[in-house]
Design a protein that fits this description.
The complex is a heterodimer of chains A (about 325) and B (about 200). By secondary structure, chain A is an all-alpha fold. Chain A contains 13 helices and two strands, in the order αααββαααααααααα. Chain B has a two-stranded antiparallel sheet. Classes of the chains: A mainly alpha (about 325), B alpha+beta (about 200).
Chain lengths: ~325, ~200
């Protein structure tokens, strides 16, 4: 009986996470267009609904009703499965992320995490890394040189940033001694000064940069940069398959925002009079805004510069950071 | 100036040559360059500028069908044929200068002499498929009869629309309602024309 209840609870949580995050990802596209427009002195979408709010629905209808074109020379099964990998890995990674502090609903304590596993951070980073198979397979099966270039860049970028993100997050893990995101969150429960961003500023910077690379956001959007590789791996995609890539990208943005908030910025601990859930929302919103802000302000870098900066600058810095952390801990 | 002066490619005087950045020669210098570039803070200047523009909210979008820009009087859109303010008859005297000067040869006019032995314009068309809106016709017109309007929304079902005489000529009812504006734009007299023009002495 108890097991059945657990299974039902988990399924409900999973459905809620997928539904809410997919909705937020859709809303993030609207926010992105608005914020970019305001930063460039434009108005952005204005005509569908009040202040363009229903643009979201219009885009959704367009994506769903568009013909799903599968070009002639593509490798059909791989071409069709690749976008699913992008969306699925993005959502599966959220299984081990605690979004909010636990709360009581109708006398029943709810833990807003689908599955509290003790290697949560490892799991999230592992699943996110699997996500790179989406651009890789999509690009290689597309029978299009731009897609192939995009796939190549995806692998190059993946090889570069994975090292940095893994090494940079190692130092906080050494301090906390646990991979569980709940433990990491609880470690920073004594107000702002206990946030890990003060103890590990370098790791924070490196992890944030790796996060930008992982989500393919500018300034590291080399794998789908229009001016160089048309649309990269997604060139041949249309309709909802392309939409899956899109949702995957925005879901990844949300995952990275939540991860950075939990690991370095105090997570869902309440602060002064602000409750924990609101703190979490504020931090995640700030990070999403930062993603858009950076996109509006900064030019992107070349793939060779990206590799150079990852291997020759960021990785040594991460190693030095680990070394110093280890020395201090000992 | 002789031909030799033009053939002189020596551009030294007045020019400052920029040789490019000095390239780092050893490891320490390239490290210093990386450090300087990383610390410089130009990235944050960029962030600040876009953020400032967002807060200022000085939006330059014109939401076109709802809002329209006011066109300058010198804007050269679809032509208009004006009427005399005194009598309401057409200003055009059929001199044919506009037809003559038109460089894309898109103006076509037919004139005849009526029973009062006055020249009248029976047909006046502009082929807007060929018109380049150079404004020569309005400039050359001695009567300020053909002028450029401000009407830039000229999508139509027919090629010939806007270009016939009855399209361009101020309608009589509109004229009687005193809606015809004097044209201040291309080819018109300036406000202080009287001061700048010397009157013709009668003795000539």
């Amino acid at each position: 009986m108890n097991e059945t209840a657990l299974i039902i609870e988990t399924i409900v949580k999973a459905v809620i996470v997928v539904a809410v995050v997919a909705g937020m990802a859709g809303f993030a596209t609207f926010i992105e267009r608005k914020v970019l427009a305001f930063m460039q002195r434009r108005l952005g979408p204005m005509h569908v609904g009040p202040y363009g709010l229903l643009q979201l629905a219009a885009d959704g209808i367009k994506l769903f009703t568009k013909e799903d074109i599968i070009p002639q020379h593509v490798v059909r099964p791989i071409f069709m499965i690749a976008p699913v990998i992008a969306a699925v890995t993005a959502f599966v990674a959220m299984a081990a992320i605690p979004f909010f502090p636990e709360f009581t609903l109708f006398g029943y304590t709810v833990h807003p995490i689908v599955s509290d596993i003790n290697v949560a951070l490892l799991y999230v980073m592992g699943v996110s890394s699997v996500g790179v198979y989406a651009p890789l397979l999509a690009g290689m099966s597309s029978a299009n040189k731009w897609s192939l270039l995009g796939a190549g860049r995806a692998v190059v970028q993946m090889l570069s940033f994975e090292v940095v993100s893994g090494l940079s997050v190692l130092a906080p893990i050494m301090m906390i001694g646990s991979l569980s995101l709940i433990d990491i969150n609880d470690y920073q429960s004594d107000g702002v000064m206990s946030w890990l961003i003060w103890k590990q500023p370098l790791a924070f910077l490196l992890f944030a940069m790796a996060g930008f690379m992982e989500t393919n956001r500018s300034p590291f959007d080399t794998i789908e940069f229009e001016a160089e590789v048309v649309s990269g791996y997604a060139t041949e995609y249309s309709g909802m398959r392309w939409g899956l890539f899109f949702i995957g990208e925005y879901a990844n943005m949300i995952t990275i925002s939540v991860l950075v908030s939990i690991i370095f910025m105090g997570g869902y601990n309440s602060l002064w009079f602000i409750p924990g859930a609101l703190m979490m929302l504020l931090k995640v919103s700030f990070w999403i805004f930062l993603f858009l802000w950076v996109r509006a302000a900064w030019p992107h870098i070349r793939p060779d510069q990206l590799m150079w900066v990852c291997w020759k600058v960021l990785m040594p810095l991460a190693v030095v950071n680990i070394l110093i952390t280890g020395l201090v801990l000992v | 100036m002789e031909l030799r002066d033009f053939q002189n490619r020596n551009i030294n005087p007045g020019y400052i040559f920029f040789e490019g950045e000095t390239k780092p020669t050893n490891g320490w210098e390239s490290f210093k360059r990386v450090f300087k570039r990383s610390i410089k803070g130009e990235l944050f200047v960029g962030l600040w500028i876009v953020f400032r523009e967002m807060i200022r909210f000085d939006i330059h979008t014109v939401q076109y069908p709802a809002e329209k820009l006011e066109m300058s009087p010198r804007y050269r859109a679809i032509h208009k044929l004006l009427r005399l303010f005194e009598s309401g008859s057409e200003r055009c005297i059929g001199c044919g200068l506009c037809e003559k000067i038109c460089i894309s040869k898109c103006i076509r006019m037919d004139t005849h002499v009526d029973e009062k032995s006055r020249k009248v314009v029976s047909e006046y068309t502009i082929n807007f498929g060929r018109c380049i809106f150079c404004g020569y016709c309005a400039e050359v017109c001695p009567e300020l009869a053909i002028v450029h309007g401000n009407e830039y929304e000229n999508a139509s079902e027919q090629r010939a629309h806007f270009g016939l005489k009855e399209d361009m000529l101020t309608p009589l009812d509109e004229f009687k309602a005193k809606k015809q504006q004097e044209f201040p734009g291309f080819g018109a007299l300036s406000d202080h024309a009287n001061e700048t023009v010397k009157q013709t002495p009668l003795a000539y």
